[in-house]
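step 3/5: co-fold with histidyl-adenosine monophosphate
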Amino acid sequence: MSTQPPFQSPVGTHDVIGAESALWEGLIARFAQMAYRYGFSMVHTPLFEEVGVFNRGIGENSDVAKKEMYVFEDRGGRVYALRPEGTASIVRAFVEHQPTTPFKAWYVTPAFRYERPQAGRYRQHHQVGVEVLGSDDAAVDVEVISLAWRFYQSLGLTNVRLLINSMGHDSCRGTFVEALRAVLTARSAELCDEHQKTHGDNPLRVLDCKKDACVEVTSAGPSLPDFLCDECRHHFSAVTNGLDAIGISYTLTPRLVRGFDYYTRTTFEFVADALGSAQNAIGGGGRYDKLAEQLGGTPTSGIGFGSGIERLLLARAAEGVDAALINRVPDLFVVDTTGQDVATPLVDQLRVAGFATQRAFDGRSMKSQMKVADRSGARLALLIGPQEQAAGEITIRDLRSTDFEQTQQRVQASDILAVIRERLGK
Ligand code: HAM
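step 4/5: write tokens
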């Protein structure tokens, strides 16, 4: 009878091991490749920041800051928070280091939110994302959105919709918020329990509420696009024209305000229809043209997006896409039955020459080593027993051939690299 180990991963977190890890490795490698194609460099910032970075950045009244952040005091009495998202930290680093602009950063990071765990919603999830600082050109919005779109395509996802909106800038959004506030105040008794109490703090949060009561009241209220000033309207149509020009379709979604306070102008979300509606957002982002200033920098426009790795893989599974994302099959497997560990210098030579090479350990029998070699999926096995060792030779066996007696080849150890290169076409 197996007993439960004393420790498991914390509630709402998970380990990535086994077959899943190849998907993660492949997904991240593809994102890195895509980011390189678009001219982004990788950026790392600490997993925790002074809590003010997030309170000022995503907004004290956002659900994430109010209810979900992991805030702690360190041994020196400083109050920090684990990163609930990637943007505020990158902008903090931008303000601190003042790199040249446009600053184009990509990242892969865990993010921590104390949520109610369920499929596709975790307390530690992981995002790949990009941020661009230093330009308010609508072409940047198009570039960021297209990077996400092309990345999803490269993962094999086909059932993804892009929802897009413009939230305007301070003044035009301000007029809209006041109009919304008036409606919410007049009909506050009809709102969901939470927003009956909190709608005054930030009326935009009510627009983001998925509860029927709030949806009904806000649907009958003012619509954000009607309030955009000429400049914001012009910027938004340049974004949608740019998307049209590269064949990316979108759904105009006037209610899309997203959950953080830093957003201005373009906001967008990607939904995977193969997933259930509660957790179907596989990515989201937008402009944050005031964030650098809010974090103490000079006024600098910015835009980016983040995409949940777990949700992307769930969406792939739900769409039935099962193509591998990375090839982790070794080229070679070395079977050493000399009892003198000739495998160690041989595998080193092969790896230095660029071949993915595996081997067995613990002086196992020929039969047992061949079993592991077969399981590894390697194309060729290199066999060295006492006979080969005495003759200075190595036997090459094609593991995919059914008639290995016929196809197996014995070569001088000194010729091994040249022969393998030819056999593998590398
Ligand atoms: P977000 O929409 O909060 O935006 O998160 C981005 C993505 O992370 C979501 O679309 C979803 O795929 C995934 N995600 C979020 N929370 C969870 C969770 N609890 N469990 C699993 N997956 C989750 C941001 O974080 C912004 N920083 C995006 C951004 C970048 N905006 C501008 N630049």
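step 5/5: annotate
The mean pLDDT is 95.
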